[in-house]
Specification:
With 193 residues, this protein is mostly helical. The protein is 65% helix and 0% strand. Helix 3 crosses helix 4 and helix 5 (126-134) crosses helix 8 (165-192). The protein is elongated and about 55 Å long.
């Protein structure tokens, strides 16, 4: 048996020995896991919720679930993938509770193939992107982030949100158009300042 879990596509791997210690309930092992994943979980939560306080709540809820469910983790998959799924679920649950913009089906389904959903070149500028994403509705921002940054498929996003794949495609298409508009406005404002 090797000492390290199979490598994941994410840079944070967790040694099998650390996971075994956490499964036995060792507080120091949980602390090490928390420190390794605090930043990526918080960042993911912040991108989905758009608010630091809510992201902090999601981080805490995710880590509490981690501590409760560590025994359910099977080493066949990367640890970050398992923990990330918990974090995404917690963030989406927070958005549902917030209920500022409820998840709604659109009667007119937009086919993804008919729209350019690649992010504009300005997306490389993290500050502009962060401001623009912050101005988007929660649902739309979440779909864009899950699709482009986290690599979820439309079917997976639909499952997470309890909607259809066409809902995800529609949100992505509309959101991408709106994001392009917002980034253009942000770029113009920055260049005139």
């Amino acid at each position: 048996m090797t000492d390290v879990s199979p490598p994941s596509s994410f840079a944070i791997d967790v040694p099998d020995t650390l996971l075994a210690r956490a499964k036995r309930g060792e507080a120091s092992a949980f602390e090490q896991i928390y420190r390794r994943f605090e930043r990526p979980v918080f960042t993911l939560a912040l991108r989905l919720t758009g608010e630091r306080e809510e992201a902090q709540d999601v981080l805490q809820d995710t880590m509490l679930k981690l501590f409760d469910r560590i025994g359910e983790f099977r080493s066949e998959s990367p640890f970050w993938g398992w923990l990330r799924q918990i974090a995404v679920n917690e963030a989406l649950m927070k958005l549902r509770k917030r209920n500022r913009t409820p998840f709604t089906e659109d009667s007119d389904e937009i086919e993804l193939e008919n729209h350019d959903t690649m992010l504009p070149p300005a997306a490389a500028d993290a500050a502009l992107l962060t401001r623009a994403l912050g101005r988007m509705p929660d649902t739309t921002r979440s779909v864009i982030w899950l699709y482009h940054a986290e690599g979820y498929t439309h079917e997976e996003i639909a499952g997470l949100m309890g909607k259809t794949a066409s809902f995800s495609k529609s949100q992505l298409a509309r959101g991408t158009r709106r994001l392009r508009e917002l980034l253009k406005i942000e770029q113009e404002a920055t260049s005139h300042a």
